[in-house]
Amino acid sequence: MALTNTSLAAAVAQGDTTIRVTAATGFADGQMIRVNNEFLAQAGAAQGVVIPVRRGLEGTAQVAHGLLSDVVTGLPGDFPAPPPGHPVQVPPTVTGRNSLGADVTINTADLPKGDLTYVITKAAACAITLGAPSKAQNGLRVTFRSATAAAHTVTLAAGFYGDAGSSDIATFAAKIGASMTIEANAGTWGVIALGNVTIA
User: Fold this and answer.
1) What pLDDT sits at residue 46?
2) In terms of domains, do 33 and 126 share one?
């Protein structure tokens, strides 16, 4: 059996025991489900597109997920095998991954503990406001990648080049795959790579 891909039709809170998907084809009681980097198991029959689930499996954290987050389901053996000696049965992706389906502010306290890719899934332009990292987060890399052809923006009040007012807004070309990678250093963000993104 192959993996089935869909997305969330509604946001999921940290304590929710059901998820609502855009299409329930391929879901079955007992199957493994991955929403972003969290693993779940289907815990009963689907009620239309509402799936009962057990959360935070395979050593992953039970966290909130936004509208249109990526969802994959299948038998445990359908997911990639873990590397030798790895204790997790079904590993998450190499770096963290989270979907952004709505405008959002990412404050310092909301930043991930490890490198993370935010996949922008909002169909229209998504407005992302980014807080400065703490000095304890030196070396943290964050990537924003567009999964839709819209002119998304990432705003940093202090400026990506340390000059507020002339480098505080990163604007994505309306192209799928446009991306930017930034790295935390000494309480600021520095640009590592831009792909079809301009900063002004």
Assistant:
1) 94
2) no
Q: What is the pLDDT of residues 54-85, one digit of tens each?
A: 999 988 888 888 888 889 999 988 876 554 54
By residue range, what is the domain housing residue 46? 4-78
The CATH number linked to 116 is 2.60.120
Q: How far apart are CA 55 and CA 63, in angstroms?
A: 9
Do 146 and 177 contact (CB within 8 A), yes or no?
A: yes
Give the chain's largest Cα–Cα span: 55
Q: Distance between CA 184 and CA 44 in Å, rounded?
A: 43
Domain contains 84: no
The 3-state secondary structure of the chain, one letter per residue: CCCEEEEECCCECCCCCEEEECCCCCCCCCCEEEECCEEEEECCCCECCEEEEEEEECCCCCCCECCCCEEEEECHHHCCCCCCCCCCCCCCCCCEEEEECCCEEECHHHCCCCCEEEEECCCCCCEEEECCCCHHHCCCEEEEEECCCCCCEEECCCCCCCCCCCCCEEEECCCCCCEEEEEEECCEEEEEEEECEEEC
Instruction: Work out the average pLDDT over 128-133.
Output: 94
Global confidence as pTM: 0.60
